[in-house]
Automatic annotation (TrEMBL):
Keywords: DNA-binding, Transcription, Transcription regulation. Gene3D superfamilies: Winged helix-like DNA-binding domain superfamily/Winged helix DNA-binding domain. Signal peptide: none annotated. The keyword Methyltransferase does not apply. Pfam families: HxlR. This is Helix-turn-helix domain-containing protein. It comes from the Bacteria. The lineage of its organism: Bacteria, Bacillati, Bacillota, Bacilli, Bacillales. Residues 17-115 form the HTH hxlR-type domain. The keyword Transcription applies.
Amino acid sequence: MTTSEEKRQPEITLTGCGYHRVLELISDKWTALVIYALENGSVRYGELLRKIEGISKKMLTHTVRKLERDGLVHRHITPIVPPTVEYSLTPLGESLLEPMRSLRQWIRVHDSQVMAARVNFDQTYNKDNDSPNLEDHL
């Protein structure tokens, strides 16, 4: 015998909608920052490293390889000694700029509201509990 909960099908699924693929593409902080760093054209590896605060060489290499695999970034190697490597957005990568700019604008406008909401939430739910379990309040 099944319960009504078991019969109910979810309306939103990870496998059934394309949103999870979008989130896979851009959800980590380094991916977004690399895309922003490339929005004005080709950039050499060392310049990318200098442009993006806090990113390590290992993480930058991992991120640009991931973006290259996803078809968002093109890597161009100039065969000189030593070789130079430049990265640029592909047309597919450039097509992400508009929605990402919209998200950047949204946070510029609403960041103070988000931060105020966090402070309010934390003050409300931390009054009686030093170690709150957020699930208890949902």
